[in-house]
Amino acid sequence: MSSIMTGERFHFGHLFRRVSLGFLSRRPQERPSQLVHRLFFLLSQEKLYLSPHFSLDSLALRLNVAPSLLSKALRETIEQDFLELINYYRVQEAKKILANPNNIEVCLENISSHLGYLSHSSFLKTFYQHTLLTPDEYRQQMNLVCGPLDS
């Protein structure tokens, strides 16, 4: 008897993982730079990188390409891997949040969670690697540059 008929939950994810993604490929004659351009557009429009469960596989599926082709296009075009690219986007988003004086009361744990980090320490480490500042130091610098809202 099928799981549908017995009322059990059926998970398509398990079935999908068994199916090879080999049928996915770049669009005919799509250059790696064109694929990366589509990737940038998708990331800027939908901010998929904010999801803690965002992965190379899920992104490749959205772009209708094999994960290996996407990974190769990233290395060839921007000389970064998937994780480096996602961390870059997340740090840029963090910088916007931290630079906004209206967000001065927002705690860093909430920011890291909003950015899709499952670990606050990973956020702190990644932010420092990209800026050579802690998020608190960056926030202080930006608020000094921008000045307080109330004069």
From TrEMBL:
The keyword DNA-binding applies. InterPro entries: Homeodomain-like_sf (IPR009057), HTH_AraC (IPR018060). The keyword DNA-binding applies. One of its GO terms (molecular function) is DNA-binding transcription factor activity. Keywords: DNA-binding, Transcription, Transcription regulation. It holds the Pfam family HTH_18. Transmembrane segments: none annotated. Residues 33-141 form the HTH araC/xylS-type domain. Gene3D superfamilies: Homeodomain-like. This is AraC-like DNA-binding protein. It comes from Runella defluvii.
